[in-house]
Amino acid sequence: MNEIDREQAVATHGKPAQVLDAARALFVEHGFGASSMDAIAARAGVSKATVYAHYASKQALFAATTRRECRRVHERMALPDDVGDLSLSRALTDIGHSFLQAILSQQNLTLLRMVAAELPRFPELGPIFYDSAPGLTLASVSGYLEQARSHGLVDLPDCRLAAGQFLGALRGDSQIRALLGLTPDVDDAEQIVDAAVAMFVARYAIVTPARDGR
After folding, report:
1. Which residues form a coiled coil (predicted)?
2. What is the pLDDT of residues 54-79, one digit of tens each?
3. Which backbone phi and psi does 206 adopt, to 5 degrees?
C-alpha cells in the first residue's frame, strides 16, 4: 500500500476524518490562507497536537482534504473494469455522463473556485489540486483508451492527448458558465455527451469490416 492509499484508508474514520471534515468546511468558508490549524482543531473537536500528529502542515492537510474530495468524485466515474465489457461508444457515453455530472457538482465547483482564489498566495495548491482531480481523471481515461487500443478498438498515436481532447469536448462551455455562476447548459447533457462521443468515434475508432453473410 503506497502513502496516498494508506492516508486514504486512515482518513475514512475516527479523528483523521473529523479533521478533514473540519478542514474542508473552513477552507470553503474562509479560504486556505485564513483557516488556521488552531481553528481547524477547534472545529474538529481535537487538540492541535492531534491535527499535527496526522498532518505535518496546513499544506499537507489541504492536500489530504483535496485528495479525499476528488477521490469521492472520481469513484463516481463510470470507467469499465474490462474493456471488453462494453462497446467503445457505450463506454465513452457512460464516462461522459459521469464526468459531466462530476465537474458541474457544487462540491467540485466550490473547491475549484477556492483553489483559484488562493493560488496567488499559495501557488503550491495548483499542482496538488491538479494531481488529485483533473490529472487523475485524465490518467484514468487515458488508461481506458490504452486498453481499447490494445484490443484493436481505436487507432491512437497518443492516448493521453486523445483523452484530453475527449474530456475537453465534454467540458465545452458548461463548466466555465457554472464557475461564473451562470446556469450551465446541463439540460442538453445528453446532446453534449452524444456529440463528444460521435466526434471521438469518427476520428479514432477502428471499424471492423462485417464478414460475408453476417
Report:
1. none
2. 999 998 998 898 888 777 766 766 67
3. -95, 120
End-to-end CA distance of the chain: 49
Nearest-10 Cα torsion for 183, 187, 193, 199: -80
Nearest C-alpha neighbor of 106 from the set 169, 181, 41: 181
What does the pLDDT read at residue 46?
95
Cα–Cα dist 201/199, whole Å: 6
What are the boundaries of each domain within the chain? 3-70, 77-204
Taking the model in full, what pTM does it have?
0.80
Q: In the block, which residue shows the cell 457515453?
A: 93
Mean pLDDT of the chain: 85
Q: If one looks up domain 3-70 in CATH, what number appears? A: 1.10.10.60
The architecture CATH gives domain 77-204: Orthogonal Bundle (1.10)
